[in-house]
TrEMBL record:
The gene is aroA. It comes from Aquibacillus koreensis. Residues 10-424 form the Enolpyruvate transferase domain. It comes from the Bacteria. Pathway: Metabolic intermediate biosynthesis; chorismate biosynthesis; chorismate from D-erythrose 4-phosphate and phosphoenolpyruvate: step 6/7. This is 3-phosphoshikimate 1-carboxyvinyltransferase. The lineage of its organism: Bacteria, Bacillati, Bacillota, Bacilli, Bacillales. Catalyzes the transfer of the enolpyruvyl moiety of phosphoenolpyruvate (PEP) to the 5-hydroxyl of shikimate-3-phosphate (S3P) to produce enolpyruvyl shikimate-3-phosphate and inorganic phosphate.
Amino acid sequence: MSEKLLESKQTVIKGELQVPGDKSISHRSIIFGSLAQGKTVVTNFLDGEDCMRTIAAFQAMGVSIEKHGQTVVIEGNGVENLQEPIEPINLGNSGTTARLLLGVLAGLPHHFTLFGDESLTNRPMDRVVIPLRQMGAMIDGRENGKYLPLAMRGGNLSSIAFETPVKSAQVKSGVLLAGLLAEGETTVTEKTTTRDHTENMLQAFGGKIDTNNGKISITGKQQLQGTEIHVPGDISSAAFFLVASTIVSGSELTIKDVGLNPTRTGIIDVLKQMDVDITVVEERTIGGEPVGSITVRSSTPKGIIIDGEIIPRIIDEIPIIALLATQANGKTIIRDAEELRYKESDRIASVVNTLQALGADIEATKDGMIIHGNRTLSGGKVDSYGDHRIGMMIAIASLITEQAVTLVNPACISISYPSFFEHLKKVSR
Ligand code: S3P
């Protein structure tokens, strides 16, 4: 396993940064571009490993997808022309590819086999398999289809009215995509709002979808038209640098052109509640998604309670928020976040174990964690658990540790942020 030595206390964080394109939006641009008729051009596409899995899956179904740097050109031929892949589809580490693709494949009259890496193989798929079976897809797999590998035969779907038992945009999106390929009107009801990029992007491709009080309705068999998509910067990637410039004293950083979709901006709300010096400027709309620039100056945060409705809006940012909380005045409590247990690692366990190993005062609870602030972090050898967001949290922690940090398995960071270390170097003075 490779290791990376991270020297401690070398820097302040200064200047301007443009983070790579949003992971969720990049996945969806490939999916809708492949379902649509005609050419789709995607700019500022995230070329992380996860999004490349989505590209490979649709290429295996005969879609022409060409990538030149961060620009992707998709020649869509419509749903009817998606072909049966010859080989099993490798989903790698990507939960989004898995859950969203399952929804699409459920609507196609072909046979598919799907597998992933060790992490993905242990993440629950039944949350989407169960509603897709109700719609008529035939799906089987390990432990009765709870886990990958899965085999399935899709086609001839009927619509359903589905209430999501889990707070998951992936599940919502999987069912909505199947609904797009089914007969009749499918509705998904969610008790807590999750990211709505699927709904937004469907409309960008000329589709119709209605949202009313947590009830999302989609009529099947709509014809989508190829379009141009500009992917905004990923706020989940920006979060690592927002926290870095908060905790490293003397820092001031502006991150330009970050996606500010309200279903994703919980990190900004949390930082404001913690009294972090943060401002958002140049707000505007590009391609249906709000974007803006965020400036953070170093400051001492205060501990807060984080729970309820905000959790899906910060679900990927909790590891880096936990690091921030170790530096806050007072105690931070994170609750209602049991979903963290089903991410690329069990993020309650991996965050708590890693920060404890670095000298933090943090304990795990059933659905979150309790973090006591004002701790000096030591250093040492810690593992990313093969989880990109844990790896980046460790790298940011090393900016304030007393001793150097050795990060075991840094390579996973390229899942969502291949240029992370390059960017860290760029803003380090
Ligand atoms: C995603 C939704 C979230 C998030 C993941 C991307 C998406 O997962 O953690 O990184 O693109 O829909 P859940 O919706 O399962 O919580």
